[in-house]
Amino acid sequence: MCELLGMNCNVPTDICFSLTGFQARGGATDVHRDGWGIAFFEGRGVRLFLDPQPSCESPVAEFVRRYPIRSLNVVAHIRQATQGPVGLENTHPFIRELWGRYWIFAHNGNLVDYSPDLDGSYLPVGQTDSERAFCLLLQTLRNQFPDGEPDPSALHAAINDFTSGTRRFGTFNFLLSNGGRLFAHRSTELHYIVRQAPFAVAHLKDEDVAIDFSEVTTPDDRVALVATLPLTDNEVWTPLPAEHVVMFTDGAYCPG
Amino acid sequence: MCELLGMNCNVPTDICFSLTGFQARGGATDVHRDGWGIAFFEGRGVRLFLDPQPSCESPVAEFVRRYPIRSLNVVAHIRQATQGPVGLENTHPFIRELWGRYWIFAHNGNLVDYSPDLDGSYLPVGQTDSERAFCLLLQTLRNQFPDGEPDPSALHAAINDFTSGTRRFGTFNFLLSNGGRLFAHRSTELHYIVRQAPFAVAHLKDEDVAIDFSEVTTPDDRVALVATLPLTDNEVWTPLPAEHVVMFTDGAYCPG
Questions:
Q1: Is the model's pTM score more than 0.90?
Q2: How many other CB atoms are found less than 10 A from the CB of residue B208?
Q3: Domain extent for A195
Q4: Distance CA B18, CA B55 (A)
Q5: How far is CA B198 from its chain centroid?
Q6: What is the pLDDT of residues B23-72, one digit of tens each?
């Protein structure tokens, strides 16, 4: 299996602290050695860093961890391969465009005997079940809303409907973002935390590193983090509700 | 206007030497200060680095220049904005998927009053004429070949036809790759060189840096480079034929 990390905020925020703990799991403190990737939205644009090397040894990961890219929406993934060989084309997150926005998707799980009927509007480049599911999701959304992005509640409901139909193939923890919102779905393991005033000190589980968020935030900041397993050992992380897509907007939790 | 740099090879090759000269033009030895980007194909996968900062000041550019990513197909761009504000979503090269392959596009020029009729299969995320042209190109190819990628000569001819219809809107120097081939079109300025045995010493125009390619190659290597302006001052760069799409495959020049 893999690990997921997502962030959704109301002010552009860097994710360097969380990445320090997350990337250690890519082969150092945990077994996910088959590549890693991270996408940062900046406005409508997106920066996508991918590396089929283990994140704990990747020069790209080291660079990204030290370079404070400030973003409202981030999706990251470290991979332990199930379907599809280790390679750049099978490294999450995946990117496509729909309705004139980039969409980013990362999956932790395994969809068995999963060969969806794709009409050619989105086709997988690699060999993973994950990319096939992402292609079918975007195809479904485009067919359902041919005139463009619907209002957030209709979009949320459509993503939830799609997910209900896909769960029967297997484990389907995922993160999805179009730069405006972050969608998260838990099959087995996915936790979240919303940090807001009063901010406190957080201490990583995977490395002896701490940060006092009160020193680097303003009272109006709100940051939601979603991770397969809690990243800190002195904060309360909450499991997402199972088998239901949650939407995060401006750092707020919207179960829908 | 902007500058383009492309590479197509028969063995995975790093582009660090050429990037050293090219990136200096992003605000240091030349005026292109409005962002830069580079895409490296590795198999069917692609790594895309984008930065709206000038390449001569960009930490991402510095990282990429020092990190030898070996690739068969590279497309790079430094921007001097004409249409669309400076921002990540307007930074070239652009990425989309067609026929289960990633396609990468970068443009140097200006298409005036260019509002093509897009059917929604590919829509621009930013505000540039360049991204609109890329979307129309992929839409045209997909409609023309709905069953998947045609043979190389048919693909080459279709891209050339599309380009003929677009040139009337203005300057349309571009580079395009799907990871297998590199397509290049010159409206005004675009030069190429094919390096093969016997390899010699090359010296950059923009910085006092030289490399002896005979020390880092094998006799079978072949590398085609395409750049707006020659990058070296002791080699012969040839202007591409004007108003005709050239295809590069395995480092070889195929005028079609």
A1: yes
A2: 7
A3: 3-254
A4: 14
A5: 26
A6: 877 666 666 678 899 999 999 999 999 998 887 778 888 888 888 889 99
Q: What is the CATH number of the domain that holds B84?
A: 3.60.20.10
User: Using a CB-CB distance cutoff of 8 angstroms, which residues of chain B are in contact with residue A146?
Assistant: 120
Cα–Cα distance, A56 to A31 (Å, whole number): 11
Q: Please answer yes or no on whether A123 and B142 come within 8 Å at the CB atom.
A: no
Q: Tell me chain B's radius of gyration from C-alpha atoms.
A: 17
Beta bridge partners of B106: B175
**pLDDT tens-digit profile of A168-188?**
999 999 999 999 999 999 999
SS (H, E, C) B91-113: CCCEEEEECCEEEEEEEEEEECC
3-state secondary structure B209-224: CEEEHHHCCCCCCEEE
What residues in chain A have their Cβ under 8 A from chain B's Cβ atoms? 42-52, 59-60, 63, 67, 87-91, 95-97, 99-102, 120-126, 142, 146
Measuring CA to CA, how many Å separate B97 from each of A79, A220, B25, B31? 22, 39, 30, 32
**Rounded CA separation B123/B118 (Å):** 7
Number of domains composing chain A:
1
Cβ within 8 Å, pair A123-B146:
no
